[in-house]
């Protein structure tokens, strides 16, 4: 027993010295490492044909300068890319991602005619079908106006704010297109980029549109009543034509493409189905027109005067209200399918591939508030010169064309980091935030996690400098790229990753150093030091501040429970949706959102809720 205790204490003593030595070494050189330029650039260039060989003992030489806030912004933008829920939770995008839609991919459009100019294509048929099929209402329901944010039609094929009339419905068609080659010149705009808001979600489009107008000397046609985003699209496509731009990709509920040119060799029409309405299919007559002209008792506002109905009118309403009840169930299911199709991409729209080598972002060009709910690409610092620079960068990358297979899959790499670190950080935080007494079990339980982390990288004896050890080596293990870093964008993303992981590793080591001495004294003297509470407090702030500043969606947003089969874990969105259109600037929060005073906008609740068709029926907005 005695012997055992002594050997434990000796081992821990040695360990402590090793850990402390190491940390001194790192802290001593930390500042120099992160700002120093490569020591011998020609040696680096000679080492690999174009791409440097990044090893455990030289990687820090290649890390470019970037602050932690810019790093988390890059990190979190990459993780949210092409993901439905994260794009709505972090709605204000400030980046352009080069994207490829592979040959053979199917895309959909519902409308009144086969497009001849640029048009919107949905990646999900549920999305197009729900947009295109605007079933008429029967009975009393036919008098209600569809609610939603007032505004113009957005997809050219969908009147918004008003129920469709017979004319709209007469010739709706559902089209399916197939990519006949790799469409390798798309720009994907991140965040809730189809939100039709003025709180920044549309800035990537607005900036392109403004710069293009000037560059191509286009007329001032914002005033002629066209939808803003239709104008943006027309300008972007005009600008992109000589560059071979296929179009842009945005998120609404599900991802959508604005394809610039249907006449080119890019897509073929594989299906053209005239849409059949459930009421027609079931053989019902058209809804009775309830109007003054037809002899119905309506007041000034078009409200039905129930007391003045004739018996015949009452009978008609009763019959049609019954039909409406059945049909609105069908309609709600149709809309719910659209929501489900959107949520199916919470973890990614995997048919679209990103080539991160040519990522063009506003991040690290000027100060951009780190809060993805409250930032803007077109902030004060984004001068006209900087905007021109960004558009020039986009032109340069479009000349090359994209090939996702040549790119490091950064999202995969960063997902791996979050999958590992998020539970570790939350577990440590939970122990340090215990409701009970701050006693030795806090130190023991915490170091069970942190010591196991640090010891993976600490050698007990110095074998030689031939192999990596220690905190810097820990960092390398997590950030070692598995494809050559070729472009400035690669280095931007990689440097951001290094910065983020460095912060995490530092905090884990810091917590370990604070609490290992406590464990040591428990084992040696059967008691903790008088500093225990203070050390736990310091460790707690370090971990909780880190969790806060990382801004990882996983650390803050969760579904309330495992949803049933007929439910979906619902993340509110900012564009047109079956749940209605939520204006971020309004105080009247839609389902699952609340108004955030400090940001002066609606944000998404951190408890995501399961919803079913019943929520749509109650909502009446679909
Ligand atoms: C840099 O590296 C090259 C290639 O290894 C070598 O020839 C040169 O002497 C080095 N220069 C310095 C200043 O160390
Ligand atoms: C569309 O919006 C413009 C300007 O915002 C407006 O002038 C026009 O009347 C609107 N059109 C419809 C059909 O609401
Ligand atoms: C990001 O980088 C830019 C340019 O280097 C800098 O001006 C800005 O202060 C940095 N931080 C943030 C949060 O934007
Ligand atoms: C530490 O872990 C033990 C064993 O799992 C548990 O009983 C105890 O409550 C934990 N203490 C704290 C503060 O987490
Ligand atoms: C480790 O040992 C090697 C010789 O084996 C020596 O060159 C090196 O300086 C030592 N490193 C430290 C940190 O003591
Ligand atoms: C970030 O911007 C600064 C200039 O403001 C530049 O020196 C640095 O290399 C950039 N970092 C990355 C990773 O591109
Ligand atoms: C450690 O101290 C506690 C009281 O603080 C005592 O109950 C326990 O027996 C001691 N353990 C040993 C191994 O001395």
TrEMBL record:
Instruction: Fetch the InterPro entries from UniProt.
Output: YOR389W-like
Checking PANTHER family in the record gives: ENTEROTOXIN, YALI0A21131P
Name of the protein in question: YOR389W-like protein
Q: Which organism is it from?
A: Saccharomyces kudriavzevii (strain ATCC MYA-4449 / AS 2.2408 / CBS 8840 / NBRC 1802 / NCYC 2889)
Encoding gene (name): YOR389W
């Amino acid at each position: 027993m005695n012997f055992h205790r002594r050997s434990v204490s000796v081992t821990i003593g040695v360990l402590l010295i090793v850990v402390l030595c190491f940390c001194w070494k790192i802290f001593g050189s930390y500042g120099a490492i992160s700002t120093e330029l490569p020591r011998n650039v020609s040696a680096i260039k000679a080492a690999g044909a174009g791409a440097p060989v990044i090893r455990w003992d030289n990687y820090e030489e290649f890390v470019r300068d970037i602050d932690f806030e810019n790093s988390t912004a890059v990190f979190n933008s990459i993780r949210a890319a092409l993901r439905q829920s994260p794009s709505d939770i972090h709605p204000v995008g400030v980046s352009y991602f080069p994207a490829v839609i592979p040959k053979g991919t199917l895309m959909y459009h519902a409308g009144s005619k086969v497009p001849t100019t640029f048009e919107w294509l949905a990646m999900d048929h549920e999305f197009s079908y729900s947009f295109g099929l605007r079933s008429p209402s029967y009975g009393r329901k036919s008098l209600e106006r569809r609610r939603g944010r007032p505004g113009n039609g957005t997809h050219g094929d969908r009147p918004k704010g008003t129920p469709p009339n017979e004319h709209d419905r007469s010739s709706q068609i559902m089209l399916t297109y197939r990519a006949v080659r790799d469409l390798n010149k798309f720009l994907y705009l991140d965040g809730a980029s189809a939100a039709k808001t003025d709180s920044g979600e549309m800035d990537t489009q607005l900036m392109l549109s403004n710069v293009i107008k000037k560059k191509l000397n286009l007329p001032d046609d914002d005033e002629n009543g066209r939808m803003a985003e239709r104008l943006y699209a027309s300008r972007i496509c005009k600008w992109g034509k000589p560059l071979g731009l296929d179009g842009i990709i945005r998120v609404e509920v599900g991802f959508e493409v604005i394809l610039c040119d249907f006449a080119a060799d890019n897509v073929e029409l594989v299906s053209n189905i005239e849409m059949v309405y459930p009421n027609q299919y079931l053989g019902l007559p058209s809804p009775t027109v309830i109007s003054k002209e037809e002899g119905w008792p309506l007041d000034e506002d078009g409200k039905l005067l129930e007391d003045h109905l004739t018996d015949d009118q009452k009978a008609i309403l009763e019959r049609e209200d019954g039909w409406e009840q059945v049909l609105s169930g069908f309609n709600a299911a149709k809309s719910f399918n659209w929501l489900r199709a959107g949520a199916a991409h919470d973890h990614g729209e995997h048919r679209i591939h990103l080539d991160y080598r040519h990522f063009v972002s506003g991040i690290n060009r000027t100060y951009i508030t780190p809060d993805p709910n409250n930032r803007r690409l077109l902030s004060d610092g984004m001068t006209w010169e900087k905007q021109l620079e960004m558009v020039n960068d986009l032109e340069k990358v479009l000349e090359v064309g994209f090939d996702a297979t040549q790119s490091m899959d950064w999202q995969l790499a960063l997902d791996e980091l979050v999958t590992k670190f998020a539970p570790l950080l939350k577990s440590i935080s939970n122990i340090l935030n215990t409701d009970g007494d701050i006693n030795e079990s806090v130190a023991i339980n915490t170091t069970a996690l942190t010591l196991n982390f640090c010891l993976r990288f600490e050698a007990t004896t110095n074998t030689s400098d031939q192999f990596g050890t220690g905190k810097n080596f820990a960092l390398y293990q997590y950030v070692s790229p598995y494809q050559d870093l070729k472009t400035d964008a690669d280095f931007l993303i990689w440097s951001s990753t290094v910065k983020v992981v460095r912060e995490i590793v530092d905090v884990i080591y810091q917590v370990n150093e604070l609490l290992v001495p406590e464990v040591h004294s428990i084992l040696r003297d059967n008691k903790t030091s008088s500093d225990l509470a203070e050390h736990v407090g310091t460790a707690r702030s370090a971990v909780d501040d880190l969790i806060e500043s990382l801004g990882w969606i996983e650390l803050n947003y969760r579904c309330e429970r495992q949803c049933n089969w007929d439910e979906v874990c619902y993340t509110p969105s900012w564009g047109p949706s079956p749940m209605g259109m939520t204006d971020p600037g309004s105080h009247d929060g839609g389902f699952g959102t609340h108004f955030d005073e400090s940001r002066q906008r609606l944000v998404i609740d951190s408890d995501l809720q399961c919803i079913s068709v019943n929520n749509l029926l109650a909502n009446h907005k679909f």
